[in-house]
Amino acid sequence: MKKNRKKDFFKYFYISFVGFLLLFLIVNVVTSIIRYNVNFKEYKKVKSEYEETKKKYEKMLNLYDNLKNLKEGREKE
């Protein structure tokens, strides 16, 4: 009877340990997915801001070149 009780204890301990590891894995996967979605949204936001700023910069650079050429009296190239 004693051996059977010992086996039951280790069986219960093993099942509990595996259950804990599975729970830990599930929590890790869920938090990773949430973190990835947040980072991806942030990336898209920053990328769109970068594209807008890049367009504004190119527009201003073009205006600057035109004004510089007018000041120097050159025609547009």
What does this structure look like?
The protein is an all-alpha fold. The protein contains one helix and no strands. The longest helix has 71 residues, at 2-72. It is rod-shaped and about 105 Å long. 0% of the residues are buried.
Q: What is this structure, in a nutshell?
A:
The protein is 92% helix and 0% strand.
Bulk shape: rod-shaped
Which value, in Å, is the CA radius of gyration? 32 Å
Write down the overall mean pLDDT: 88
Q: Which stretches are low in confidence, meaning pLDDT under 50 for 5 or more residues running?
A: none
Number of helices: 1
Structural descriptors:
77 residues, mainly alpha, 92% helix, 0% strand
SSE topology:
Elements: H1 2-72
